[in-house]
Amino acid sequence: MKHLLVCFLIVQSYLSFSEEGFVIDSTVDQINLNSYIYHFEDTSNILTVNQVQKKKWVRLNANPTFASNKHVQWISFNIDNPYKFSFERYLFIPYHLIHEIDVYAVTGSSIKNIIKTGIKRPITNKHLKSIGYPVLISFKPQQTTNVLVRLEFLYRPLRATTYLLSKTRADEIINNNNSLIWFWRGMFLFVLIMAITIYWFVRLKLFLYYIFFNIGVGLFTSSQLGAYFLFFNIDSTGFTSIIDFTGTTLICLFLPLFLNELTPIKKRNKLVWKWMYYMIYFMVAIVAINLIPAVRESFAMYWSHLYIMFTTGIVLLLILIFLIKGIKYKDKNAIPLLIIYGFNTLTAFSEAILPTLGIVEDSPYVLGTILITTLFEITSFMVLMARESLLVYKERSELLEKQQGHQKQMIVTMVAGQEDARNRAGRELHDSIGANMAIIKRQVGRGNMELYKIVGQTIESVRALSHGMVTPMVNNEGFVDEMKELCFLFSSDKIEVHCYFHNWPKIDNAEITTHLYRIAQELLQNADRHSKAKNVYFQFIGESHQNISLVYEDDGIGFNYSKNENKGLGLRNIENRVAILDGSLQFDTSTINKGCTIVIEVGL
User: Fold this and answer.
1) pTM for this prediction
2) What contacts 302, CB < 8 A, 6 or more positions away?
3) What are residue 83's phi and psi, to 5 degrees?
4) Distance of CA 471 to the CA centre of its chain
5) How much is the average pLDDT of 26-43?
6) Alpha helices of 429-448 — where are they, by DSSP H?
7) Is CB count within 10 Å lower at the N or C end of the chain?
8) Given this model, what pLDDT does residue 561 score?
9) Which of 89, 52, 90, 91 minimizes the C-alpha distance to 73?
10) Which of 283-292, 374-383, 403-412 has the highest mean pLDDT?
């Protein structure tokens, strides 16, 4: 009975796999086996290798791609070794996202399980560490080996292009893939960190949307590259699909928002934009539901994946239409954005869609082109953002400059008004009140010496007050004399004012000397009213032909300028006049009862 069963299996194998096979050539390092594939779909999802050998297999006249994948797929190759020695080759499936892969080698009546691998099996099961699945098979001399591959990736699109590689070629492909992947990771992290850093300083929504778009690109690409397995050994619940879904959803959410910050696509397509985001929000709900492991393992995953793929395609197509429409309206950045976006979309189409349709042949570097174009896209977007940020910065700088100019003009106008009011009040005191007091003094005469003396003192006070209020348009030596006289007039039994000039240059600009004079007046008035100082020192220092300094010091009680929120009119007048002169103002008043030091620097 046992011998009859073996004979039956041999006959069945011959009937099932007697179609065209492939003859190994030792001089060929790589061959795409798509032209030699036979296919069987296990609709029960439970058949064993012995059972599927009895089934009818069909020649697959297209790339082994199963977009609507609801069942376990089996593929088979008849590979003949014409040599008189055993021959080793790697069977290489370059796609990472496949749940279970079982490879069997059937030679005569012998059935050998070569490997059980896939993301739901330990990653250490792989024959070589790679984003794909290299399976080492030894072909017996002068015999035909039927290689059967069981592929389980239920409810998700499955691509199973398979190559037969020499060890040298397998190592080359894996090393090149690893180099490109680590280069991509480094560049991606660099661009992402740079974008986060820039956003921290500028706080532009443009950079925020770019950051989340890049995170989406990173999650989606990393799910295809197997980054999950840098941290874990097995994905028994299909969590990689959640990473895939999350990345895709973030791309759909933030790519339109990011592009809208560079060119106005939303305002020209308000209704379509609204419905597009309704579809995207439903994607978010689907991702949330699929966080439950039982949902990911059920038929709901089939519809989830179908909806996310459909919506992503709609979003990407609409963005293309929006950008073309923007060119029609000559919107800013529409042309460079269409070039960048169109190039990336065309590459993804040629890399993913065309091989699926069987129009172009797959490559063992399945993600190579996409990785390169992704880097091109994110770096190009970064260049555009930098350009846009420079324009925004320039506009802000110009606006700030205008605001500062307007603020300075307001200060100049306010100070000029104060000067005009002081001049009018000073002249009124001198011409009206001063003259009246002189008449009163003559009428009183010396008959009443006490009253005569009081009136005389009042006249002197009025004269001094009017003199102090009228603007002293002086320069150079006149300014030095005016300042010394001002200090002399303020000196009394309670306070002594000292005035020194060091290397004081010739100043022909009367506006500068007038403002310095008024600042000195304000400082003296504050000292007299608030400081309780016994000594006040003014130092006027000529540091060079381009800069001068006014240094004020007293030995009074001091005050904390930084905590003095309710600044008096005197301090505000000082600040305004320093601002008019484009000077700098520094207070050293933090230590109470240790006096006050104020330094004013002005450029000539």
Assistant:
1) 0.69
2) 70, 154, 155, 156
3) -90, 165
4) 56
5) 91
6) 434-444
7) N
8) 67
9) 52
10) 283-292
Are 558 and 583 in contact, with CB atoms under 8 Å apart?
Answer: no
CB neighbours of 181 closer than 8 A, spacing ≥ 6? 131, 225, 371
Amino acid letter, 255: L
The Cα–Cα gap between 284 and 291 comes to 11
Instruction: For residue 557, give both structure tokens.
Output: 């009680």
- Please tell me the predicted confidence (pLDDT) of residue 82: 92
In the predicted model, is pLDDT for residue 443 greater than 90? no
d(CA 489, CA 461) in angstroms, rounded, equals 11
* Cβ atoms of residues 8 and 54 within 8 Å: no
Task: Delimit the domains of the chain by residue range.
Answer: 2-165, 176-389, 474-604
**Residue whose tokens read 């050539």:** 25
2-165 and 474-604 share one fold = no
Burial class (CB in 10 A: 0-12, 13-18, 19+), 575: middle
| 285-309 tens-digit pLDDT | 999 999 999 999 899 999 999 999 8
> What is the token pair recorded at 565?
């929120």
How many CA atoms are closer than 13 Å to the CA of 318, on its beta-carbon side?
Answer: 25
Domain 2-165: give its CATH architecture: Sandwich (2.60)
Residue carrying the six token digits 């290489």: 92
Give the span between the Cα atoms of 368 and 362, in whole angstroms.
Answer: 12
pLDDT score, position 9: 40
* Position 1 pLDDT exceeds 60: no
Contact between residue 604 and residue 509 where contact means Cβ atoms under 8 Å apart = yes
Cβ neighbours of residue 130 closer than 8 Å, sequence gap 6 or more: 174, 177, 178
Residue 50 confidence class, pLDDT cut points 50, 70, 90: very high
Distance between CA atoms of residues 483 and 536, nearest Å: 13
The CA distance from 118 to 125, in Å, is 8
Dihedral over Cα of 485, 486, 489, 490: its sign: negative
> How far apart (Å, rounded) are the C-alpha atoms in residues 109 and 121?
28
Average pLDDT of the chain to the nearest whole number: 82
Residue-wise over 513-527: b if at least 16 C-beta within 10 A, else e? Answer: bbbbbbbbbbbbebb
Closest CA to 244 of 312, 191, 323: 312
Range in 81-85, 300-304, 407-411, 465-469 with the lowest mean pLDDT: 465-469
Tokens of 253: 């959410």
Q: Could you identify the residue written with the tokens 């930098």? A: 386
Which residue has better confidence, 348 or 524? 524
Reported confidence tier of residue 14, pLDDT bands at 50, 70, 90: very low
Percent of the chain whose predicted confidence (pLDDT) is above 90? 34
The CATH homologous superfamily of the domain defined by 474-604: Histidine kinase-like ATPase, C-terminal domain (3.30.565.10)
Average pLDDT in the 169-197 region? 90
**3-class secondary structure, 75:** strand
What phi, psi does 461 have (nearest 5°)? -65, -45
Hey, what amino acid is at 453?
A: K
CA nearest neighbour of 127 among 115, 140, 119: 115
Alpha-helical (H) ranges within 363-503 are 368-428, 434-444, 449-469, 477-490
Q: What is the pLDDT of residues 563-582, one digit of tens each?
A: 655 556 677 788 888 888 88
